[in-house]
Design a protein that fits this description.
mainly alpha; 2 helices; elongated
């Protein structure tokens, strides 16, 4: 018999993601997008923006794994 009290875990307050699955899917999408970026588009702004997005996603992924970073 299935546990009917189960709820999909939700990201931290203030997160732009609605579910943990959405966080995982966004991480996979972002890595593919970074891998597919042509060399001529890899500017300092590209790296700055990519770093910030990866930092936020990594924080969410660590929370999902139960190892949220301390502020």
């Amino acid at each position: 018999m299935a546990d009917e009290s189960y709820e999909e875990p939700h990201p931290s307050p203030g997160s732009v993601y609605e579910t943990d699955q959405e966080v995982i899917e966004e991480a996979v999408r972002m890595l593919r997008e970074l891998d597919d970026t042509p060399l001529h588009q890899m500017t300092p702004l590209f790296y700055q923006h990519g770093y910030e997005e990866l930092r936020m996603l990594t924080s969410e992924l660590l929370r999902i794994l139960g190892s949220a970073p301390r502020d």
